[in-house]
Amino acid sequence: MKSLNLDSRRLEPAAIKEIQRFINFGECGLSYDVFIFEMREAKYRPSPEALELIKQAAEALGVKYPQLRWVANNYGIPDAMKADEFKELRSFLSGYFHEDWDLEASGPREVVAQFLGSAPNSCMLEAIVAQIYRYVGEHEDGNELERALIKDLGCYYLPSGDGVDAGAWLKSLASELKKAVS
Fold first, then answer.
1. Whose CB has fewer CB within 10 Å in the chain, the N or C terminal residue?
2. Counted domains in the chain
3. Which is more confidently placed, 170 or 4?
């Protein structure tokens, strides 16, 4: 079994202190939570080997390892410009079409209904619609667009699984959201 070496080049000093404190008291679950928080905040980018150890720790602790947006992006943080350019779209897709979306809804239409039921304001809906059209325009190839849904936007719904082209699905999604603005 490998021991845990806390790399001060990758983790902030406060996080190292918290993790070490929890480990010393036998609170491995809490140290795991600190790692996950640091990763979510993009303060810690583990090596692939370290990431595998963290996944194993999650399994040993009996907790579900969270899907982090940069894990699907080859352990890197999405380009900041692109992140800002599609912020509302990413927030919507990753928040509602997350990895367990199919456990919370019977299909994509129900997910959209749940989102609209949360009463998003018209400015947000208009931003999402505009970002959908820009995003589709940047990805001419349907297969590339579907891969980009997970990689760039954190969307775990794969339209091809329902026999639908990713571009067509996104455009129909934009149309549905546009109706809600009217």
1. N
2. 2
3. 170
